[in-house]
């Protein structure tokens, strides 16, 4: 690592909430969301959709029963000094675009997450039958803890415009029940298809509010409890929505350490954020410590890099929130992808426990409660 990167990884921990306890939480995005339905969809899309590509398009699909059970096997092998096992905070979507409806009617519609799982169990029982039960088992065993990632992961206004335009890349996706590699549209500058709450016009804030309100209600219906933290897709959320989300019971919102947030008119505004607890009626800020994406190919030593960044956080008495995505542990399209991700996860967990046997595994929403109560400072 260069001296500049080393310096950055140290100083970024100076501001924000501190603690003398070595808390470790995993924040893993995209659970429940459709992307590329199956291997056959990959073959159908890679030649018809010019934007198709990258490891998410090629490997990410709705988690299967086997995906979850194999993940649980790795998580359950590792315990902290309090005998607590690792818990994945799975940021989940509570609905998905209803591709069959959109293909048939030519307008946008969504299906609930429960409907997605029921549909997949009927279409591919060998992979998806019992997936809902696997979710429930993981929750009961405290190995997976869902939190809110949005209603759907995709920009509804953008999909509505692409439907009206008859865009061929969307048509190709609908035919194979997928949402991968979609291009933007010229009259929505700065809005990518996976950015559910990015916007080009502030008039869409009302629609975003309704999507969030409905998505949180669906989340509670699906999982049996209300989510108290929120990670918007791609960490894009107009600042005007922060207080609205807090009013719906969300205590902390995921924010990028440094990034641009949509401000309307195709413009964005740079913000710098630090880990802060909720205060009064205002939501706190969650800022992830490091990225662990072992299947992306972006780092030659993802485990070593993660351990070095953890060491920097602990030196400055900061909790560690490890950012990741479901694709690293997804094997429906490519079982070798899942195997690689799980092996690296196992290696990371073993390495951190050898180096810091006094770490405390927590879920992200549990960490927020600790911060709010002032425990561990």
Explained architecture:
The protein has 377 residues and is α/β, with parallel strands linked by helices. The chain has one domain (3-373): TIM Barrel (Alpha-Beta Barrel). It has 15 helices and 13 strands. It has helices at residues 3-11, 39-45, 54-59, 65-75, 99-105, 113-123, 125-128, 131-140, 156-165, 168-175, 205-223, 242-247, 302-315, 335-355, 364-373; strands at 23-31, 88-93, 95-97, 110-112, 144-150, 229-230, 252-254, 258-264, 267-272, 284-286, 290-291, 320-325, 360-361. The strands form four sheets. Strands 1, 2, 5, 11, 12 and 13 form a six-stranded parallel sheet that branches. A three-stranded parallel sheet has the order 6-7-10. A two-stranded antiparallel ribbon has the order 3-4. Strand 11 (290-291), helix 13 and strand 12 (320-325) form a beta-alpha-beta unit. Helix 4 (65-75) packs parallel to helix 8, helix 4 packs parallel to helix 14 (335-355) and helix 5 (99-105) crosses helix 10 (168-175). It is globular, with a radius of gyration of 20 Å. 49% of the residues are buried.
Q: Could you provide a short overview of the structure?
A:
The chain is of the alpha/beta class.
Number of domains: 1
Average pLDDT metric: 94
> What class do helices, strands and sheet pairing give?
alpha/beta
C-alpha Rg, in Å?
Answer: 20 Å
- Counting DSSP H or I runs of 4 or more residues, the number of helices is 15
Order of helices and strands: HEHHHEEHEHHHEHHHEHEEEEEHEHEH
| Name of the CATH homologous superfamily | Glycoside hydrolase/deacetylase
Major β-sheet annotation: 6 strands, parallel
Poorly predicted regions: none
| Proportion of beta-strand residues | 15-25%
Which term fits the overall shape?
A: globular
- DSSP strand tally: 13
Helix content: 40-55%
CATH architecture annotation name = Alpha-Beta Barrel
| The CATH C-level class name | Alpha Beta
Classify the fold: give the CATH topology. TIM Barrel
Distance linking N and C termini: 31 Å
Region (Disordered): 255-275
């Amino acid at each position: 690592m260069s001296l500049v990167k080393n310096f950055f990884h140290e100083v970024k921990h100076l501001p924000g909430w501190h603690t003398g306890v070595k808390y470790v939480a995993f924040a893993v995005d995209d659970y429940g969301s459709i992307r590329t339905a199956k291997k056959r969809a990959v073959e159908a899309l890679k030649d018809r959709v010019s934007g198709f590509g990258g490891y998410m398009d090629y490997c990410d699909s709705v988690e299967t029963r086997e995906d979850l059970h194999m993940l649980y096997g790795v998580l359950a092998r590792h315990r902290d000094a309090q005998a607590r096992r690792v818990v994945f905070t799975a940021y989940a979507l509570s609905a998905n675009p209803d591709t069959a409806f959109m293909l048939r009617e030519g307008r946008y519609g969504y299906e609930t997450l429960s409907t997605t799982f029921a549909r997949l169990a009927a279409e591919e029982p060998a992979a998806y039958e019992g997936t809902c039960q696997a979710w429930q088992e993981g929750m009961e065993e405290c190995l997976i803890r869902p939190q809110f990632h949005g209603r759907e992961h995709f920009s509804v206004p953008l999909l509505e415009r692409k439907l009206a335009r008859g865009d061929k890349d969307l048509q190709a996706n609908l035919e194979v029940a997928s949402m991968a590699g979609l291009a933007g549209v010229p009259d929505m500058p700065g809005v990518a298809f996976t950015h559910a709450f990015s916007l080009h016009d502030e008039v869409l804030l009302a629609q975003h509010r309704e999507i969030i309100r409905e998505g949180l209600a669906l989340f509670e219906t699906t999982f049996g409890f209300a989510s108290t933290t929120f990670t918007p897709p791609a960490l894009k959320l107009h600042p005007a929505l922060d207080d609205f989300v807090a009013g719906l019971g969300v205590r902390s919102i995921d924010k990028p350490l440094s990034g641009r947030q949509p401000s309307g008119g195709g413009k964005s505004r740079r913000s710098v954020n630090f880990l802060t607890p909720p205060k009064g009626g205002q939501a706190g800020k969650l800022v992830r410590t490091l990225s662990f994406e072992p299947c992306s190919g972006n780092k030659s030593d993802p485990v070593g890099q993660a351990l070095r960044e953890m060491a920097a956080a602990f030196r400055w008495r900061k909790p560690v929130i490890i950012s990741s995505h479901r694709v690293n542990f997804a094997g429906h399209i490519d079982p070798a992808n899942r195997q690689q991700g799980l092996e690296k996860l196992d290696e990371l967990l073993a390495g951190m426990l050898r180096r810091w046997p006094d770490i405390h595994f927590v879920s992200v929403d549990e960490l927020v409660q600790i911060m709010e109560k002032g425990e561990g400072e």
